[in-house]
Specification:
By secondary structure, the chain is of the alpha/beta class. It has helices at residues 3-32, 89-97, 113-128, 141-145, 149-170, 176-198, 235-241; strands at residues 42-46, 66-70, 77-79, 85-87, 102-109, 204-212, 223-229. It folds into 2 domains: 1-37; 39-241, Beta-carbonic Anhydrase, Chain A. The chain binds zinc ion (ZN).
């Protein structure tokens, strides 16, 4: 580390502590009320993208309101010690330990880098061989996309949940950005499908949302859309479900 980097890091840390001082001043009395424990209603599963604030997007900054999982591509899966896929403990935790009804919300976002990387990886593979016949599990993704093992682990999880089939269905019908944003929506569906198929929680509902970063759904940047309601993804049915709740915006683009 050279001198300039050291200086920058300390400068950064100083800002961290200045900010934390103000935070503790403002929040310490509120936090005191929560020291006994937590019982949040919501578990959110959102991307790590710095523009997607999972604890702010519906004014949900309240302490103890949410259990948050941030992971690129908002996947609900992880690989366990045997190399098998499993629902993440981040998601099991609240449904298993709460005695009240809970909700798990999968939140995708338009312009997602993880979905874009998956799309581009499939494009690159397709240039060299027949994608339909390619066994992704036995394909060295790094050869096609140059990404790290860690990033390719995430890409594999998105493919495992069905994004290759979605890519095949969507490819060639609109421009690249629209195709990627459609895959974002499909990826949310895939995660809800995984939750429905693989979990046995007794009192937890699953909803799929898309945070529209680039306005492709036709509203403001930052608008949230309901795209999946407990596994239901037909737009007409989503609208019927939401008919008596005026604030809910149900919409789909895929
Ligand atoms: Zn993302």
């Amino acid at each position: 580390m050279n001198k300039k980097e050291t200086f920058d890091l300390l400068d950064f840390l100083n800002e961290v502590f200045k900010g934390n001082h103000d935070y503790a001043e403002e929040m310490h009395a509120k936090l005191k009320k929560h020291v006994e424990g937590q019982d949040p209603v919501t578990t959110t599963i959102s991307c790590c993208d710095s523009r997607v604030k999972q604890e702010a997007m519906w004014k949900n900054e309240e302490i103890g309101a949410e259990f948050t999982r941030g992971t690129i591509g908002n996947t609900v899966l992880e690989y366990n010690h045997r190399g098998e896929t499993t629902i993440s403990g981040d998601i099991d935790y609240i449904p298993k330990h709460s005695e009240t009804p809970t909700v798990a919300a999968v939140i995708g976002h338009t312009g997602c880098g993880a979905v874009t990387a998956t799309y581009e990886t499939l494009e690159a593979i397709q240039k060299h061989k027949d994608l339909q016949k390619t066994d992704i599990n036995h394909t060295d993704l790094q050869k096609y996309n140059g990404e790290t093992k860690g990033i390719n682990t995430k890409i594999r999880l998105l493919l495992e949940s069905g994004l290759k089939q979605d890519y095949n269905q969507i490819k060639g019908k609109s421009n690249k950005q629209e195709e990627i944003d459609k895959l974002v929506e499909r990826n949310v569906d895939n995660q809800i499908k995984e939750l429905i198929n693989r979990t046995h929680y007794t009192d937890t509902e699953f909803i799929g949302l898309v945070f529209d970063l680039d306005g492709i759904y036709g509203g403001k940047e930052g608008q949230l859309y309901l795209t999946n309601y407990c596994g239901e993804k037909q737009l007409q049915k989503l609208k019927q479900e939401a008919a008596n709740h005026k604030a809910i915006k149900a919409k789909r683009i895929s």
